Amino acid sequence: MSSSSSSSRKGSLPGRGGGGEGVLSRISSSVSQSAIVARGRTAAAEAATVTKKLLRSTGKAAWIAGTTFLILIVPLIIEMDREQQLNELEMQQSALLGAPTAPPPPYAAAAAATSK
Question: Is the pTM for the entire model greater than 0.85?
Answer without folding.
Answer: no
